Amino acid sequence: MNPRPHTRHPAIIRRLRNAEGHLRSIIAMLEEQRPCLEVVQQLQAVEKAVETAKKTLIHDHLDTCLERVLGPAEKAARAPIDEFKAITKYL
């Protein structure tokens, strides 16, 4: 059985590459002795980008792998999966 491709991987990769570039600029800010408040604000943005990438990856994995095992589900049957995905925001 061929695994179904994870459809959101390209978007996750783009988000992480953007975060990578942003992180390089933060390192430059530190080397330039920029104010700590500016640096922390930029670090917060990188953290949020990585967090969003992680959640997207988990949701994509759930969608892809569960559908592969269970087959396509009707909306009512997806309710527990959607609820599980919603609760992950508290992790």
TrEMBL record:
GO terms for molecular function: DNA binding; metal ion binding. CDD domains: NreA-like_DUF156 (cd10154). One of its GO terms (biological process) is negative regulation of DNA-templated transcription. Pfam families: Trns_repr_metal. It comes from the Bacteria. InterPro entries: Metal_Tscrpt_repr, Metal_Tscrpt_repr_sf. Belongs to the FrmR/RcnR family. This is Metal resistance protein. It comes from Acidisphaera rubrifaciens HS-AP3.
